[in-house]
Every structure is written in structure tokens, then in C-alpha cells.
Amino acid sequence: MDTDICGPSIPKMLGVETETIHVSAGGWSPAWAMDNLAVMSIQFMLPGRDEAIIWRGAKKNGLIKQFLKDVEWGDLDVLLVDTPPGTGDEHLSVNAFLKESGIDGAVMVTTPQEVALLDVRKEIDFCRKAGIRVLGLVENMSAFVCPKCDHASEIFKATTGGGRALAAEMGIPFLGSVPLDPRIGMACDYGESFFDSFPDSPACTALKGVVKGLAEQMGLERIGEE
Amino acid sequence: MDTDICGPSIPKMLGVETETIHVSAGGWSPAWAMDNLAVMSIQFMLPGRDEAIIWRGAKKNGLIKQFLKDVEWGDLDVLLVDTPPGTGDEHLSVNAFLKESGIDGAVMVTTPQEVALLDVRKEIDFCRKAGIRVLGLVENMSAFVCPKCDHASEIFKATTGGGRALAAEMGIPFLGSVPLDPRIGMACDYGESFFDSFPDSPACTALKGVVKGLAEQMGLERIGEE
Predict the structure, then answer these.
(1) What are the extents of the domains in chain A?
(2) Residue A208 C-beta-side C-alpha neighbours within 13 Å
(3) Nearest C-alpha neighbor of A176 from the set A136, A221, A119, A125
(4) Nearest Cβ partner of A122 from B53, B85, B146?
(5) Complex confidence, ipTM
(6) Would the CATH topology of A1-103 be identical to that of A104-226?
(7) Does the keyword Metal-binding apply (chains A, B) (predicted)?
């Protein structure tokens, strides 16, 4: 469920950008990116790919409610809610609308530099105040290994210790560091699976470690093994 | 003026993170990052660096109005408004509050990959609908040159032509490509001037080119020369 209303990128990254929503008696049908992966995003409702979604918070909240109430999700193992950065309307609404059913927890994603950690500390504080468990922290865009000479560069330098140090400081599980690999961005642009295309790459191994760690935190070891 | 209410990073990047706001009869005093650079951000009002700002859009709009009405900006050459990503409350409010005084224009910043351009196309559409001139587009995080072997890697690959192609497609000025340089992130983390520390680096040359092009678009050639 893509709650980034003004900048929906999930459909493109999952290769379902051209899908539209079908409405039936049962509700809105999500788009299927894989046999076991349904997606809902405002992107499916736009007349054109380039169209701006000029919406204030109140209108965003209404759509998020509809995504939860009117979409025929079926019998889900997991509902993954992708939010934009921040601690604003989208975050407050998701938390309010799911209060009764309960939220298993939140996953934090950062890049290594302190300017990014600064925002993530605020997100963690939000979770604490909202009573949402932090399942773990992932560090994305870690060291880059030159394809020509194998030299590793810290492009977004962890001047204060990066994700690992922040997780320790905050007492939350550290789920792993995903190195910068240009093929991840390309897979996103082409809507292809990085896991299928480059299963043995260090970035894929790191991402699988993140999924495994997360599944353990959620008591869903079965998913981590798949 | 930092309108990223939930994720204020400008004070840290400009080295004024520990400043607080002074209130006088004339209004709120901004923090001074340099002799000729005043800054206003919600960060100056927070009890702690890690404190979440859990605000819905309406509350954000109120603060943006205060930043414009109650801050003693003095006699400004330029008011630069930094917004978070998207086309939501912050963007609508800045545009509404400055409607009468007029807005010279907007600067778009993207990274090279299509998933990023997708959002920027929406921002450009927002500007068109809001009647805001687009002064130009900057491509950030372009090729990375390995410090060991000089090999250039496109980490965020421009699978659809990147910023330059988007600017041409949209008929807006292209202000330049800023290469990925780890020292930029470090300068931001340390609150130091990348311009002062690495004036001859390719990234600094590119950034100066962006400023010059922007000054030309705004009819402020004087600033481009400084």
C-alpha cells in the first residue's frame, strides 16, 4: 500500500505502472505485481503519468482511509505500508486507522550520513510516542565498490557511525547495510526484480538478510526462508 | 526559509544547528549562517534535536505563515524557500501566501534515474498549474569518479536520459549536473562550506555553474559573479 500520494513510485518499481483500478461490487481491485503481491497506489487513478497530485493533508487522509476500507485486499499475510518521509498526515492517518487492528511495527530506512540519521531519529521518536514498535533499522546506500578496481568508497560517509551506531544508540535491531549497486536503481526503473536478476550480488545478499531479520522480528520465519 | 517541518536539515547543513530563535518587538530573529545569509527553520524551536514534529498539514501551514509574517527578514535580495518533496500543503501554502508579492520561480532538483524524474515531472506540472515559472532543473548525484582509478560510474543510472533530457522534453532551462562527491555529504554533516573547502573540485565548479545559470534566469547576474 503506497501512501506517498504526491510522489507514488511503487507501481513503476514493481512493473505495474500502466495498471488501472477495477471497481467491482466487492470493492477496488488492487494491481497484482506477482502472484502473491497486490499493490494499491494513487498512480493507478491518474489520467497521466506526469499529472501532479496537488492535495492537502485532509484529502490525502481520505484516500488512505479508502485504501484500507474499500480495497479488496483478500486474505493477506502481511500488509506493508510504504510512507513518504516525515511524521505528518500520512503517518498519523495510517496509525489512527489501524489502531484497532493493531500494527506489528515499523521499519526504518536510512542512508549513512548524519543529515539522514537526523530525520530517522525523529521518525523513531514518532513511533515511540505513537506506541508503534520499531522492528528494525536498515542502512541503504552504504559503500560503493568500483566495478573497475574494486576500491570501496563511502559516498554517503557515516560521519557519526551510520545506521549501525544509530540502532545501538536507540536500542533497536539493526537489520543490515545494503551497498550502493547501480543495478538496483536500474531494476527499479525497468520494473524488474533485482532479486531474480542478480541473486548472488552482495546487495541481494544484504537485502535477503534484511528480510530474514525482519521476519524473525515479526515471528514470520516462514517468509524469511522463502 | 526551511519549510520541511517534519525533517528540517538546513540548520545542520549550514552549521547553525544549535541556534535558537530570539523574539523581539520587531519579530522573530532568524539565525545567521553567514553575514549575508539568514536562516529560519522549525529546528530552532525544538527542545531536542531528536524530537519528532508530529504535525498535520494545517499546523504546518500556520508555521509557514508565521515564517513569512513574523520573521524579521530585513531587506532581502532573495528569499529562498526550501520545500520537502511533493506537491502538498507546504507547496500550496507558500504559493498562496506569496501570491500577492509574487514568486520569481521554482528550481527543480532531481537525480538521474527515471524513478526520480517521475516525481519531478509532477512538480513541474504543479508549477504550471500554479502559474509558477520554472527557472531551471539541476541534476544532482550524477556520475561518481573512483578516487583510486578515476573510473566514472553512473550509480543512479539515467535510464531515460536524466535531467538534461527531462529539461529538453519539458522546455525548461537545464542548469547543470552535479557529480557525486563524498565531500559534499561530509561538508553537510559538519556544517561547513563545500565551496570554501574544495573550490576547485568538479562538483564545486558544477554548483557554481548552477548558481550562475540561475542568477541569469532571475536577472541577478551580480550574484552569479560573487
Answers:
(1) 1-103, 104-226
(2) 13
(3) A136
(4) B53
(5) 0.94
(6) yes
(7) yes
A88 touches chain B (CB under 8 A): yes
Q: How many residues does chain A have?
A: 226
Cell of B79: 528569499
A174, A210 in Cβ contact below 8 A?
A: no
| Nearest beta carbon to residue B182 from set A6, A125, A157 | A157
Q: What is the CATH number of domain B104-226?
A: 3.40.50.300
Substitution target in A2, A115, A144, A188 with the highest count of B β-carbons within 10 Å is A115
Q: What is the tens place of the pLDDT at every residue in B98-126?
A: 999 999 999 999 999 999 999 999 999 99
Cα–chain center distance at B49? 21
Cell of A111: 542512508
Q: Which fold has domain A1-103?
A: Rossmann fold (3.40.50)
Sequential DSSP letters for chain B: -B--SSS--HHHHTT-TT---EEETTEEEPEEEETTEEE--GGGG-SSTT------HHHHHHHHHHHHHTB---S-S----B--SSSSHHHHHHHHHTTTT----EEEEE-SSHHHHHHHHHHHHHHHHHT--EEEEEEEEEEEE-TTT--EE-SS--TT-HHHHHHHHHT--EEEEEEE-HHHHHHHHHT--HHHH-TTSHHHHHHHHHHHHHHHHHT-HHHHH-
B85-95 confidence digits (pLDDT tens) = 999 999 999 99
* Residue pair B177/B139 in contact by the 8 Å Cβ criterion: yes
Residue with cell 562527491: B181
